[in-house]
Amino acid sequence: PVAIEAIELVKDYGSGDAAVHALRGVNVRFEQGKFTAIMGPSGSGKSTLMHTLAGLDAATSGRIMFGGKDLTRMNDNELTLLRRHRIGFIFQSFNLLPMFTAEQNILMPLTLAGAKPDRAWFDMLAATLGLTDRLSHRPNELSGGQQQRVAIARALVTKPDLVFADEPTGNLDSVSSAEVLGFLKRSVKELGQTIIMVTHDAVAASYADRAIVFADGRIVADVDRPDADIMN
Ligand code: ADP
Ligand code: ADP
Q1: pLDDT band for position 30 (50/70/90)?
Q2: DSSP 3-state of 72
Q3: Of 64, 67, 160, 165, which one has the greatest count of Cβ atoms within 10 A?
Q4: Which atom from ligand 2 is nearest to the alpha carbon of 173?
Q5: pLDDT higher than threshold 80 for residue 229
Q6: What global pTM score does this model have?
Q7: 166 near 134, Cβ under 8 Å?
Q8: What is the distance in A from the centroid of ligand 2 to the CA of 133?
């Protein structure tokens, strides 16, 4: 089954002669339970695709089908609910709250939504991400790799259908990167998540089931089981 699909997706910034064509009619389907890497040079449209798919940025034209609905036709309330309950985000800079423990950070999306945690799911996430003995630590007591694993647990705590990761290993050394990518790969396999990850790094992309390469607002390559050597 298809988790999310973009149809003739166009995004312009500005208009007229000064317009920047960030997405020039992108057609792409992301299958449920797959880990896809989006690659391509700086300025090629990767972030714009991610932001429009997540409903953070309005498309200029085209459709985005998610769960049988066209996301481009949703109002702000519907989009907020969608992001809160069905989409998870992982950022390059972790974005953890320094005053709160790892556990409180992980539970934050539920706390903000006033929702009760599923304790079994939480415990499973913490164990899968190797955080069980770090839950009472604050972010500054954790390594970069551990902080990013907390951020991944936070992204998954609401059991989202879809997870967007924006350069999740951009601030990590190679050992922590391998760890984080290994967990993303496992979470696709074991928890059935759909993950869309923007990365500059061919090694990071090689953990994905599929890699899409952007250039100048268009998809120029789409490969299954990307190999780090081929992607370079
Ligand atoms: P990437 O993520 O691949 O680096 P982006 O999606 O950020 O690419 O950018 C695609 C194009 O859109 C670039 O030319 C960029 O300068 C432009 N762009 C991105 N965001 C904005 C914005 N808020 N206003 C104007 N232009 C933008
Ligand atoms: P990782 O393999 O997760 O990147 P490191 O090898 O960087 O971990 O760190 C080893 C241990 O040192 C970690 O368990 C962590 O608790 C602790 N640690 C790392 N960085 C910091 C820091 N900036 N402040 C406090 N403790 C840290």
Answers
A1: very high
A2: helix
A3: 165
A4: 4
A5: no
A6: 0.84
A7: no
A8: 13
Q: Say if residues 176 and 152 touch (Cβ distance below 8 Å).
A: no
Q: Do 162 and 87 contact (CB within 8 A), yes or no?
A: yes
Query: Which ligand gives the minimal distance to the CA of 179?
Result: 2
Backbone angles phi, psi at 68, to 5 degrees: 80, 5
Atom of ligand 2 nearest to the CA of 172: 4
Strands 61-66, 2-13: pairing kind = antiparallel
Q: How far apart are CA 63 and CA 79, in angstroms?
A: 14
CA-to-CA distance for 211 and 38, rounded, in angstroms? 6
> Using an 8 Å Cβ cutoff, are 94 and 168 in contact?
no
Does the C-beta of 166 come closer than 6 Å to ligand 1? Answer: no
Q: What is the mean pLDDT of residues 65-81?
A: 93
Ligand 2, pocket residues at CB < 6 Å: 140-146, 175-176
CB 218 within 8 A of CB 26: yes
Q: Which of the ligands is closest to the CA of residue 24?
A: 1
Q: Find tokens 């423990």 and name the residue.
A: 101
Nearest ligand for residue 21 CA: 1
Instruction: Confirm if 180 and 90 have CB atoms less than 8 A apart.
Output: no
Residues contacting residue 43 through CB under 8 Å, at least 6 positions apart:
none
Between strands 162-166 and 194-198, the pairing is: parallel
- Non-local (6+) Cβ contacts of 136 within 8 A are 101, 102, 103
Q: What is the pLDDT of residue 232?
A: 58
Q: How close is the Cα of 44 to the center of ligand 1, in Å?
A: 7
ipTM of the complex: 0.69
Measure the CA dihedral 199/172/161/52, to 10°.
Answer: -40
